[in-house]
Amino acid sequence: MNYKVYFKNYLEKLKDENLYREIPLFDKGDSKYIEIKNKKLLNLASNNYLGLSNKKEIKEGAIKAIKKYGCSSSASRIVTGNFLLYNELELGLAKFKGYEAALIFNTGYVANLSIISAICDKNWVIFSDKLNHASIIDGTLLSKAKHERFRHLDYEHLETILKRYNKDVKKLIITDTVFSMDGDVADLEKIVKLAKDYNALVMIDEAHATGIFGKGRGLAHELGLEKEIDINMGTFSKGLGSFGAYVCCNKSIKDYLVNKARGFIFSTSLPPAVIGANLAAIKFIKENYQLGERLIEISKKLRKKLNEIGFNTLNSSTQIIPIIIGNREKLQIAKDFLIESGLYVAAIRPPTVPIGTDRLRLSLRADLTDDELELIVEGFRKLKERI
To answer: Which residues does this entry mark as bearing N6-(pyridoxal phosphate)lysine (predicted)?
Structure first.
């Protein structure tokens, strides 16, 4: 076996199928404007939904923590990697979200992998929305639980599958609240009811809802259902403009995760600077939750304009707006055309999205001005004529 040839052939195949990924060559990818080949572009690809990553208050929180605690925790929290700062964040986060306890993880991916594989084993059944994030799928595979995937947002299908299992079987229903590629939302009321009817735990991933809905607390809080959700996971790395992830739950589940979640036990904990930034972000969003409300309002207006032009935005109702192109060659043409129009938009292809649904993905931000929104509308109006 010539391994060099093996990898080269695989990469050539990806290129032939227009599925090859590269790291884009630009600086400060979280900024409202980025520069590519000396061209200034409005950035519609970042998940910095509220524009907090460069906020003075968030940066000062990080700097203050570095000055007091240094640059690294140097170990897992259960060894020597814990500081009072971490406890302060978890206590504050639990109070903010209305839960008994909270636990910090290094990333959203690690959180989902760790939580699911710690709680579930081969004696569990996991019921998962077909469009859940890859980390949920991977966590389920790692757990060795039986994996039942229900059609996207199809809760009649979910109930049909639930009926196959005795009430004594251990069950976990898990869903994203805001789906990262479609921009639509889960019906948490239906999920909670089914969980009660069929004796299941409920876990949600609020990564793309944290900071936006429910006065910054997430979609579960927007709907008044936080007390009905057993495991409420989310991230600091999108709407909150920092890094890391969390889970809110009761104290028993937290203690269970501290003892069983391998991604928590066997990882050096986040640097103090990140924890300081996270504390500052929670404080900021408590006092400025209207930013999330503004984001949803401008998203609604822009989506209406895009639909009027003739673009299919699926069932998006959030700051994430997909524009279905379908054809891979056309997708690249569309992305390049928008760059010439001053807009940088992510082009999303399989396997991230289902085959035949290649798309442009707009990630809007709360600090977009009326002029910038008009620039987006004009760019897409011209794109419609082009393709």
So the answer is: 238
